[in-house]
Amino acid sequence: MAGKTARLDAARFGPWALITGASSGIGRGFAGQIAANKINVVLAARRLAALDELGRELAARHGIRFRSLRADLAGPDFMDAVIGETQDLDIGLVVSNAGDMVLGEFVTGDYALLARETTLNVNSHLAIAHHFGQRLARRGEGGLLLVSSTAALQAVPYTANYSAAKAYVFNLGEGLHHELAPKGVNVTVVLPGATRTPMLSRFGADKGSMGRLAMPVDSCVADALNSLRVNRAVRVSGRMNRLATTLPRTARTRLFGALSKSMAQQASAADTGVPAAGQAR
Ligand SMILES: NC(=O)c1ccc[n+]([C@@H]2O[C@H](COP(=O)([O-])OP(=O)(O)OC[C@H]3O[C@@H](n4cnc5c(N)ncnc54)[C@H](OP(=O)(O)O)[C@@H]3O)[C@@H](O)[C@H]2O)c1
Predict the structure, then answer these.
(1) How many domains does the chain have?
(2) Does the beta carbon of 278 lie inside 6 Å of ligand 1?
(3) For residue 176, what is the enclosing H or E element?
(4) Is the C-beta atom of 159 inside 6 A of ligand 1?
(5) Is 212 a domain residue?
(6) 179-204 average pLDDT score
(7) CB 73 less than 6 A from any atom of ligand 1
(8) pLDDT at 278 over 80
(9) Pocket of ligand 1 contains residue 23 by CB under 6 Å
(10) Which helix (H) or strand (E) holds 146?
(11) What is the DSSP string of 182-217?
């Protein structure tokens, strides 16, 4: 069983780490555990105030430095901001984590939202892995951690575009693991299942049986960072999730599709007025 805080060698994965999606949920958890290992953090997301507040808290608690990077990773030219804020730093660790999910029937879904979801869940990983993959390879050591999902392992009706995007991240990460290992760079792609974050709450999935089965953020993050440290190519978070991967693919598609359909129906019945996933904040 993974501990609640990962141990990382700051000499190898520091002195700076970049974490996307650091303002909330799993990304916030990564920032906390990386800072606890005395690695300075660049915190990237759209909500600058949340990043600044987290950065100040981590700096006070762990004596590290931080930089907040406001970037819309589903917008145009987002890499200009990412490169601009990081080019003077020696980045030894990159966690490409930011993501969001559009829930509901594909053909009646809002095309603009689906396109934004794809830019965020596919293109941001592509651009970040390419730019920082080059930098890490030149450096000859460090780590790249990509956050996919167990949704990558089979099609999931009613979150079809999300599961397709996460399959891209899964295959990208696994491929880069083999390309970058000879250059001294660890690459791990992590596949969380349901994890207790604001994303889960937005879809009302924090209640009932899914809420009870959902992993705590700290365990998911510690397991992912420990997997990167030992350079595992792929890690499904949590024993129950690993067990679920042994079900036949068709059964998983039916099961997860039914769950997504029911979440979509509940969300549309509740119609909370909360911005839909993928919408600009
Ligand atoms: N929670 C789960 O059950 C679960 C399961 C499997 C995989 N995952 C994956 O884990 C990752 C983190 O999800 P989470 O559950 O922690 O969700 P979350 O609590 O909603 O956090 C998502 C993070 O991504 C950032 N983000 C969203 N859209 C962005 C954009 N356009 N530009 C820049 N940053 C953006 C958000 O920051 P701002 O809003 O401030 O921009 C936030 O920091 C995602 O890739 C998700 O697909 C989650």
Answers:
(1) 1
(2) no
(3) helix 160-180
(4) no
(5) yes
(6) 95
(7) yes
(8) no
(9) yes
(10) strand 142-147
(11) GGTEEEEEEE--SBSSHHHHHTTTTSHHHHHHPBPH
Measure 130 CA to ligand 1 centroid, in angstroms: 20
Atom of ligand 1 nearest to the CA of 72: 32
Range of the domain at 29: 10-270
Mean pLDDT of 180-189: 98
* 179 lies in some domain: yes
Can you tell me the distance from the alpha carbon of 204 to that of 149, in angstroms, rounded to the nearest whole number? 18
Q: Which atom of ligand 1 is nearest to the CA of 205?
A: 3
For residue 40, pLDDT beyond 50: yes
Residue nearest to atom 45 of ligand 1 (CA): 99
Q: How far is the CA of 277 from the centre of ligand 1 (A)?
A: 10
CATH code (residue 162): 3.40.50.720
Q: Is residue 281 part of a domain?
A: no
Helix (H) or strand (E) run with residue 257 in it = helix 249-270
Residue 169, domain member (yes or no): yes
Task: Give the number of the atom of ligand 1 that is nearest the alpha carbon of residue 28.
Answer: 43
